[in-house]
Structure formats: structure tokens, C-alpha cells
Amino acid sequence: MNADLHCHSTVSDGLLSPTEVVRRAHANGVDLLALTDHDEVGGVEEARAAAAELGLAFVAGVEISVSFAGETIHIVGLGIDHTHPLLVAGLAQVRDGRDARAVRIGEELARIGIRGALEGARGFAANPALVSRAHFARFLVTSGVMPDVKTVFDHYLARGKPGFVEHEWARLDEAVGWIRAAGGIAVVAHPARYRLSHADMARLFDCFQAAGGEAVEVVSGAHTPEEAARFASEARRRGLLASRASDFHGEKESAVDLGRCNPLPPDLTPVWSRLLQ
Ligand code: AMP
Ligand code: MN
Ligand code: MN
Ligand code: MN
């Protein structure tokens, strides 16, 4: 099963429309796709229709921004009813803070002499409710400040850098609750990317499971093989379902294309065993 259960469209910070994401996934041999835009389900219906046209199995998804132990954590929801009122209201609340945050990022960049970044970032965001740091990064690349998006994050947008702005996202238990209320399965996205102590990482998974979270991305476009092995052990130890996901945003920006992740270790229970029921 070539499942790819985490990727982005122009509805958040991806470079392809929902239809283009689905077509690319199909062309790359994906058998089961989830579209998981940041804090937003506005692309689900278009993607589902495009998938139906191609006979590609599709589940509705979302990637919710959460604050935990001073770090931003991403919780993916899979197989959600994207119209569920509790989820819809929760996501609207998370998106709400994004515009004010974008204004502050623009101000911080202006302080170090980078002008017009807010307008520039807005120009790259197809969805005005969802201006992400990725849109700022694209603006800084096209305006010639930095050679590529990763370098922009390393110099300006990552925690501790001059354009980084602290922000309070959703609470972990809330985000998991919204996903469960909408009939979905909650997944810890790309856990190796979080700068957490061992104790805080353990607490993250404890709280996630206590709230009803059931799965972890073991194989991710954001993980090295060693990191995948580490979280495969975590999945075994905690009895978590395992997910496989490119986290594709676009051709030039993503290390791994749609459907091109490594397979899951065969002894793990794939999260899609529950999605295909
Ligand atoms: P935001 O939700 O606005 O904080 O933006 C987070 C998004 O920025 C992530 O989903 C990625 O798409 C992108 N991003 C974060 N860190 C990096 C990085 N080091 N290199 C490239 N893109 C990144
Ligand atoms: Mn992103
Ligand atoms: Mn993420
Ligand atoms: Mn993502």
C-alpha cells in the first residue's frame, strides 16, 4: 500500500492546488492520500472530487498547530468529518491569531531592514486566513535576500532568529479532542523535528495518548532513517499506530515527493488499517 497521509495545498502553504496535489499523487503511484493543510480544511472537497475522478482512495485530513512545553507541535487528524462543528470552530479559532502574528513578523523583519515582508508574504498566500512562515520565506527568496527557503528559516524565521514571533496555538488536548469529535484519528506529526528534552517528549506522548491520540508519523519526509527507527520503537513501546507521510509542499521545497517515502517497518500496525475499515 503506497499511502501518503500528510501533504499541503495552496489552501495553506503548499505550492499546488488541491486538484494538482491529487493528480501528482496519483501519477506518483499513491494508493491512499490524505490532504492535511495547516489549520484549515478548505481544500478537502476539491481534493476529494479530484481523487474520485481518478479512482484514488482519499481521506480528509488537517494539520493542527499546537503549543506544548514552549514548542510548536503539529497534530495531524486523519479520516475526519471536515464539516463537524466542533472541529470547524476549533480550526477557526487557531487561524484567528495568524494575521496578527503575520503583522508582528513583518514588524520584526522591518526592524532588521527587510521592508515590505508582510505585503510580500500576503502576496504568496492564496488563502488570506492562512499566512504562514513559508509565505514569508518565499517572499525573502524571490526578493533576493536569501537563496532558498531553508536558508531563510535558518537565518530569519526559526525560533531564536530575528523574524521569529512567539505565538500561542491550540492546546494539545483540545486539538486531539476536535479530531476525535470529528470521528478522526489523531497523529503526532514529524516528532523528530521538535526541540524537546527527552522528558518533555515523553510527556508529549503521555498527554497525547491520555487525550485519545492514537498514532505517530514514523516515516516522514522530515525524518532521517535513524529518526524513523527511533519513533518506530516509540510506536511499539506505546502501542501507537504508525503513519507514513511525505509532508509534501512543492517540488523545490520538499525533500520527498508525494508517495516516495520509505515503507513502514513491517511489524508496525499502519494507521490506514483503521482508515480503510
Ligand atoms: P507556521 O505554521 O506559519 O509557523 O509555518 C510553519 C511552516 O513553515 C511549516 O509547516 C513548513 O512548511 C515551514 N517550515 C518550518 N520550518 C522550516 C524549515 N526549517 N525549512 C523549510 N520550511 C520550514
Ligand atoms: Mn507547512
Ligand atoms: Mn508540520
Ligand atoms: Mn505539514
From TrEMBL:
What GO molecular function annotations does the UniProt record carry, in alphabetical order? Answer: 5'-3' DNA exonuclease activity; 5'-3' RNA exonuclease activity
Output the SUPFAM superfamilies linked to this UniProt entry: PHP domain-like
- Pfam families per the record? PHP
Polymerase/histidinol phosphatase N-terminal domain span: 3-68
Official protein name in the record: PHP domain-containing protein
Q: What is the lineage of its organism?
A: Bacteria, Pseudomonadati, Pseudomonadota, Betaproteobacteria, Rhodocyclales
